[in-house]
Amino acid sequence: MQFRFYLIDKDDRIFAGEHFSASDDREAQAIAALLWEACSDAFGDYELWQGSRRVDRRPEWACQDIIALRLNLQQRVVELEELLQEGFAVFERSSKLRKRYTELHDCSSKPLPDQTS
User: Fold this and answer.
1) Residue 22 in contact with residue 31, Cβ under 8 Å?
2) Which domain, by its residues, includes 58?
3) DSSP readout, the chain?
4) Which of 20, 48, 75, 95 could covalently link to 55 via disulfide, CB atoms 3.0 to 4.6 Å apart?
5) For residue 100, is it within any domain?
6) Which residues face 46 on adjacent strands?
7) Residue 117 lies inside a defined structural domain of this protein
8) Stretch 44-53: mean pLDDT
């Protein structure tokens, strides 16, 4: 399924947006919530859309610890952060996003604890 993520600045305007794929609303919400949380120091809100339907945002379960997030979701978040970095000044504006990108990028190359045997 295709979704669109928008970062909303402190003046309530869309600052950046990016398309991404997710298997369902729940996965898209988790990706969007983690991506927004990573740059919430510079942006007041976000919106998540699928076509003309606005998807509910920030469910409590979506703001989980990075280690608990499945490896493939971590990789998707990293990819979206890279797209935002390439296309927008988001990285220049959010030190929190740069830090989270580094954490996720480093973590995505390591197996999760429950995947080692």
Assistant:
1) yes
2) 2-109
3) -EEEEEEE-TTS-EEEEEEEE-SSHHHHHHHHHHHHHHTTTT-SEEEEEETTEEEP---GGGS--GGGS-HHHHHHHHHHHHHHHHHSTHHHH-HHHHHHHHHHHHHHTS--GGG--
4) 48
5) yes
6) 7
7) no
8) 93
Please give the model's pTM, rounded to 2 decimal places: 0.57
Per DSSP bridges, beta strands 2-8 and 53-55 are unpaired
Residue 11 to residue 49: CA distance in whole angstroms: 20
21 occurs within a structural domain: yes
Q: How many domains does the chain have?
A: 1
Q: What are phi and psi of 61, to 5 degrees?
A: -70, -15
Kindly state whether residue 115 falls inside one of the protein's structural domains. Answer: no
Instruction: Give me the sign of the Cα torsion angle 31, 37, 42, 46.
Output: positive
Q: What is the mean pLDDT of the chain?
A: 76
pLDDT at position 2 over 70: yes
**Per-residue tokens: 30:** 């988790």
